[in-house]
Amino acid sequence: MPLILARSFLAAVACLMALAAAAPARATPDHASALHVFNEARTLCERDNGALWGQSLCGPIMIVDPADRNVIANQLDAGGVLVAKDGVFTGTLPPATLIANTRLEWSGTQWTQLVWPVPFEPALLRVFLVHEMFHRIQPGLGLARPEAGNRHLDTLEGRYLLQLEWRALARALMAGQAQARRDRIADALAFRQERRRLSDAAAADEAALEINEGIAEYTGVRLGLHRDEQRLAYAVYALARFLDSPSFVRSFAYASGPAYGLLLDQADPAWHGKLGADADLGALLAAAHRIEVANPAELSTRKRRYDADGGLRTAEEARERERVTRLANWRAALVDGPALVLPLAKSHFQFNPQTLAALDDVGTVYPSLRLMDEWGELVVVDGGAALVHADRKRATVAMPQEGNGLTGDGWTLTLKPGWKIVPGERKGDSTLVREGSGSDGLQ
């Protein structure tokens, strides 16, 4: 990349990062703000007109204020709950309905749900809107995958190799010459290959999240931004913005998705039609560039290329020591100690994907969480923790020695009528059952 263009490109990345940090948050959604969001969404989806994925992104959108659950929508719901007011449609979500940036089926309508506040810097807003609108049509495209833990991305080697992959992808995006781009892609794929060699489940787990969230974020960048330079700058920005995340377990695909998608656009414009049930973005990019399996003997040389002074490795080793201590504390509280066991049957989760942490092979720790199921609602706030076991059939929180079992250190449980807390299978544990079912589980 010529020096002047490189400086312009990096300046665009720096500008995006500054805008993300400085984007104003408005206290509560008003009709004018909602109309602005709806108009932006309509402009974006009409401009694409279904060209990218063969299906229009246009559809029902609701903006929800989490403080009072009030809704402002761009159309009426099929169930007739919302009412027209000043060019929008308003109402209130019932308490049991999940609030999150996600696809939501409510009152007979499939919605794109947006949680207030939304980003109002134009580039960030447009990427965000397209990402969430894509989620609404994603299942119909066959691009929704069952997700797994990606727990290997909270280990020393998993995190280190992922960040080396990101550094190589960033250089590939900024490369001005085709050969240089291909060489950097080969480096990224070598780090990816090694990471997956170290963990049996890594390939399938990572591929699923890259399809679910990575493709959505790529679509946001591709359709939300107008020029190739903007898109490439945003993809580099995405690779940098998640570096300070407490965990990469569920956030990594937001960074890698735009990078792989844009590089595939350059190498194989027909790649969208190749996303079968076992599709992997890295494998598609390797095939497009005819890159063979990496030679493990060259890995050390590749590592030095992206971590010349060993600073990244040193930082990750320090984090690993802290992680081991943190995991020991979580294990003592959530596995070895007395716990409240919550059966999971029809669960809905609301959480910050940047905070999830893997607890070895036991499951995933959620330091903040809103979990709803047949029995009611569990809310975990900062300072607390809940463990969702790997089989996703139960969650646990540390059980206090005293009290009624409805509150603990950093968590609160609200039970629906007809449910009660009873002794669990293990001494000191408690669990939830329907009243009248006895104390040994659900009817």
From TrEMBL:
InterPro entries: TAT_signal. Residues 1-27 form the signal peptide. PROSITE patterns: TAT (PS51318). Keywords: Signal. This is Uncharacterized protein. It comes from Pseudoxanthomonas wuyuanensis.
